[in-house]
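G., the chain you wanted modeled:
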Amino acid sequence: MNQLKVISLNNKHGMSVEIINFGARVKSIKFPVNGKAIEMTVTYPLKEDYLNDSFYLGATCGRVCNRISGSKFELEDKHYQLTNNDGNNCLHGGVDNFSFRYWKIDNGSITPSSVSLRLTSNDSDQGFPGTIKVSVTYELTDENKLVVQYFANTDKSTPINLTNHSYFTLGEDNCESLLLKVNASSFLELNDTNLPTGKILSVNASDFNFKTFESIGRKQQETLDPLLIKMKGYDHCFVFDPSPLKQAKAQLVSLENKICMTMYTDQPALQLYTGAYLSGQFKAYQGVCLEAQNYPDAVNFKHFPNSILKADETYNRTIIFGFEKYNSHT
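Predicted structure as tokens:
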């Protein structure tokens, strides 16, 4: 029988992170503000609440995060039909995806500041080819950075796209009050079912331009973009401008709490989701997701970055969330 476990990571500055083995999730990130540890994400009060979560709070999403159109693709002259859980589409890996599974904690990896979790997904799982072995390592550094590293190997060619689905608040009640900057000159055009059309558009002269700090709320509330209005906010993929891992790809700022979160990643894109459909014990727009990942539906577009992992390859991706006190020069 699987047992729900929480692993606590701490650093010397009073920052702490909690990792839960169900969905290899980030349960909590607390960052000290004026001597008090403040929660940085949307969380459930009890660890058991995550067992019935439908919002992917803090989850590791896979085998392929985001959407695959029609829940199908062709690979090496074979057609594959996946489970569909978003209308006719496959979202975050299907009905029984990685977010809803118990990951095995690698006990030998546990230190006061790091932990690794592992999962095996068998051939034909949710319709995907190949048995794939996946691991995620979380490390909290003394530089107040949460480093997330994904690794995977497969015995047969298969698509893969892993991301973290935390909803960030930076201690505020509503993400619309936060400022956002994204190092992206382009984004993916969507059709009316939230899937890429294949067109890559410039952010210039649009409500998708976050190249300088912009208020999320002002952008959403003042937009004239028909699809943004219909979707009640952002759930769009931004294409990062090429840059090394150590260069900031996105920044989120709370002026109220004077906190800046900086994202670093070697992923090519960012899915920005502002939480319009949070409900129940949560409120719409309570948190914002900055999901570093490959382009959605990449397996069905030849001109999108490759999403296929082959048997002789290792999948290795890194996402870093860095926290610091905000000043106008950050």
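The chain is about 5% helix and 40% strand.

Shout if anything looks off.
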